[in-house]
Amino acid sequence: MSKWSLEEDRRLVKSWINISTNPLTGADSKKFGFWTKVACVFNQTAPNGAAKKPPKTLNSSWNPAAPLVSKWCGCVEEAYLEKPVG
To answer: Which residues fall within 8 angstroms of residue 18, CB to CB, at 6 or more apart?
Structure first.
């Protein structure tokens, strides 16, 4: 198994956030459908010549990152609640 680059990790997080926060495609999807959408965004944003990653690979790589991303999302939400825009 090859090690992921920092750029791939960033693309994975951005793809996950893009799909999970989209009210049209969002988190209401079944697991496979959700990760298929994440894989689509992830692979569309890949540099030319980069290998395509299947949904199962992205899901497996997501598991260690999930707690950190959830913590970050919680911090961002708390910051918005403390200092509302407008």
So the answer is: 41
